Amino acid sequence: MIINFLYKSSLTISIVFLLLSVYFTIAKLDSNNDDSNNFRTVEEGSIEIYDEKIAKIDNLDDLKNFVDDEIKKNQFKGIDIPIYIDDVVRRKYLHGTAYISANTNWILKGADYFFPEFFFLTAVDPEDLVKKNHGICNQQSIIFQELIQDYKFEYASIDLFIEIPNNPAFGHFVSAVKVGGDWFYFDPNMEPVYDRKNALIVKKVLEADKATLKKLYPQYNFDLLTKEMIYMKELNRFPAKRGVMFQKVTQFLSNFSWLVFLIFSFLVRSVIRKKAVNASLS
Fold first, then answer.
1. CB-CB neighbours of 85 under 10 Å
2. Which of 11, 116, 139, 259 has the largest CB neighbor count within 10 A?
3. What is the overall mean pLDDT for the chain?
4. The domain containing residue 90 runs over which residues?
5. What is the pLDDT of residue 230?
6. Which residue would you say has higher pLDDT here, 212 or 3?
7. How many domains does the structure of the chain reveal?
8. Under 8 Å between Cβ of 91 and 134
9. CA triple 239-246-9, angle to 5 deg
């Protein structure tokens, strides 16, 4: 009968998922790799801005308190606040993709194995990113925006995907902050040298001004640049909401999906017993 099959299959799946959860939990306890994945050594000859003291702040509240204390101590106002936050992110992070360990999240690991193009294991939760001393453009922008939102500024994300002649496209992610009535451009990841108090930068970038982009990123050829390759999005919104949600949901399911199937199997078994009792009485 179908109902018997449902009972046996759900019970079997519950046992398998429980064993997977136990196995990966034990494996995590035996592993010491979590901390080693958080810090990357500074490469010889690196010209990146880096401050090991700030890089070692691995708690989001501690980082926010550090930033707030410095802003108050230096009496920063207006545009000087996002500029200072930009400096902090530049000094905290080296360039490089940061990943979560996902030691106990076997569902997320499976999703990343079968669909690597979605980069499911990249860190996108600020609580995870603050533990790292490295991150790529969107990861550093997440931390920048997480800090900037505490100061009542409007902020947004700017996505760039620019075709480069005879080379891979230039994909990049930066932030814009509105101070007064003007928007200002911030890129802690690539650390371009420009006047961060110049409100025309955002306007010219969004207009696909080749000269402006060339000054910001002189190593790239922007001959194929068009306005459609650059756009502002997600006003005052966390830019990786779906990514964080997917990681948290898969973590929950990896830990407790066995319990769901176990409860379901018990419910099916109770139905089977009721049917058996009814059949014996008839």
1. 27
2. 139
3. 92
4. 47-96+136-239
5. 98
6. 212
7. 1
8. no
9. 170
Residue pair 83/197 in contact (Cβ under 8 Å)? The answer is yes
pLDDT digits (tens, 9 = 90+) for 191-237: 999 999 999 999 999 999 999 999 999 999 999 999 999 999 999 99
Reading the block at residue 14, the tokens are: 């519950």
Burial (CB count within 10 angstroms: exposed 0-12, middle 13-18, buried 19+), residue 183:
buried
CB 89, CB 66: distance < 8 Å: no
pLDDT at 181 over 80: yes
CATH code at position 201: 3.10.620
Mean pLDDT computed over 144-149: 98
Nearest to 81 by CA among 147, 128, 167, 14: 147
Q: Within a domain: residue 18?
A: no
Evaluate whether residue 19 is within a structural domain.
Answer: no
- Element spanning 176, H or E: strand 167-179
Are the C-beta atoms of residues 143 and 156 closer than 8 Å to each other? no
Inter-residue contact 150 to 132 (CB < 8 Å) = no
DSSP 175: E
Neighbours of 252 (CB within 10 A): 12
Give CA separation, 271 vs 5, 7, 14, 190, 278, in Å: 13, 10, 18, 62, 11
